[in-house]
Amino acid sequence: MANDPKKIRFAPNGAIYVAPASESLTVPADLGTANTAPSGYKALGYVDEGGVTLTPAIETQPVNAWQSATPILYIITSASFSVKATLQETNEITTELFWGAEWVEIMSNDTPPAGTGVFRLDLSSTPDLKEISLVVDWNQNSIRNRVVIPRAMISDRGAIQLSRTENGKFELTMEALDSAGKLGYVLTNDDIIKAA
User: Fold this and answer.
1) What pTM was computed for the model?
2) In total, how many domains does the chain have?
3) What share of the chain is helix, strand, coil (3-state, %, to 5)?
4) 39, exposed or middle or buried, with CB in 10 Å at 0-12, 13-18, 19+?
């Protein structure tokens, strides 16, 4: 096969969408419409210029035999798929994902109680890990790609740097969970695949 610069791909545009993982959620089975959240999902907004890191991983263990100095095969000990991104927008969704809790409005002592416009987010000493469903879209011109992870959890959070000269950012790593024997799937309309 000859070298082909038309097959070099970038991801200049994209979006991350999340939804609570549930039995009633219909995960997308197609590429959908560009710049539109799949039904039931919400956009996480701007991601820093480093983009999104997708990491499929398989850990293996060698099986050795008396008759060979090299392994005779490998067995899979674990499989994972992670999505890492640093979110730049400060909004209800990104802050609840980052802090791992929900905002609740503080009510007044009036009768009946009224909202005060002040919200509180309690950081539990025994936090509840919530399942989410995740969709990552990216495109280069008309070539579109989508990763769908039906079930995921946030496995790591970076530190927030409060600065006079740089905006607040929410660094999250989200790990896929098993969903009927799959971690997720990738969709594309890229012409690198030969149609049947």
Assistant:
1) 0.90
2) 1
3) 5, 45, 50
4) exposed
